[in-house]
Amino acid sequence: MLKDNVFNKDIKEWYLTSLDIKDNSLTTYFSLFNKATQIENQKNKDIFDMNKVELEELFYSLKSPSPQPLSASIGFISRYIDWAIMNGHTKNRSQRLPSIIDMEYCSRFVFKASIVRYTREQLLTYMRLFDDQRHAVFLLCLFEGIKGEGYSEILNLKMEDLSSENGNYFAKLTSKGCRRKINITEDLYWKLEKLDKVSSTSLIPKQGQKYFSDNTYIFKKANVNSNDIQLRASFGNRALELAKTVFDNNNLIASTIQISGMMWYIWDMIKDNEIKIVNKELLDKVAIKYDTGFANKDNKYVSYSVLKHKLDFDFMRKNYGHFNIEL
Predict the structure, then answer these.
(1) Alpha carbon of 63 to those of 59, 79, 322: distances in Å?
(2) Are the C-beta atoms of residues 312 and 263 closer than 8 Å to each other?
């Protein structure tokens, strides 16, 4: 239910009940209306009576770290205003929002103060602070593009899935029956190999710790008596919760690490080029490696606007070096 101090609470509930949407989406929209409460109280008016400047202030107040969820929220608010006009709840019939709400428009309202990205060097420094190195290596997997639904690509890893060819290292990944192969760093390869061989979760193995055989899950419970037991998604959630403390960043989520990795990967591909250019060809490689940014996953059509807004080019130039953009 909506909070009591929301302007025109009955109208908002009437609007929501008129929509043919699932319960989980309904909860999302209730939450969105509740977030708008403070701005509505400040302006002493409902969303549908706000002018362009007031609406944009509302969008900033949502504190979204990326344009994708903002696109859905702004689109919903736009439809709510249209509905209010059609049903006579407001006399303000001026067009206050653009007719097409694209990622470029939504990116204006991204809450940048909440966004923190990390270089690979910073990540490796923080990894040393984890008591359980499985959590640290889990983060490095995210950084290098391994994830899957419920972290399944990470948790399904076995040593037989890792390989080296002509000085290059690869990982075969499995998630919900889907398989793909990506390149990984030598550093990650040997960190995974170490986790696979010994039940130690610390940086330095202790005396008497149990060794495991190959062809079993790399991410498994430590110090078990017999069979290797595969870890579950809760392990990944625990790693991220611990990372919030280690990194001193309460806003840290899986995409924080992944997008940081995407920027490192782009730089790694261009750092040795005399003329350093970030173009669509590079973003295609990022989309494939990190399994993200596809407008249509069936035919692997890459949405360059989505990927572009995930990346922080200022961060890259500040921490890695200068490059040109041709998108």
Answers:
(1) 8, 21, 29
(2) yes
Residue among 239, 238, 260 nearest 122 (CA): 260
Cβ contact 324:278 at 8 Å: yes
Predicted confidence at residue 200, as pLDDT, reads 43
Closest listed residue to residue 111, CA positions, set 58, 72, 75, 54: 58
At 132, the pLDDT band (50, 70, 90 cuts) reads confident
The radius of gyration of the chain's CA atoms, rounded to the nearest angstrom, is 24
**Do the beta carbons of residue 43 and residue 51 sit within 8 Å?**
no
**149-185 per-position pLDDT tens digit:** 899 999 999 989 999 999 999 999 999 888 999 999 9
Is 70 exceeded by the pLDDT of residue 55?
Answer: yes
- Residue 213 token pair: 């055989």
Residue 91's nearest CA partner among 77, 76, 81 is 81
Q: Give the confidence band of 228 by pLDDT, cuts at 50, 70, 90.
A: low
> Is the separation of the CB atoms in 311 and 259 below 8 Å?
yes
- Tokens 């750092």 correspond to 271
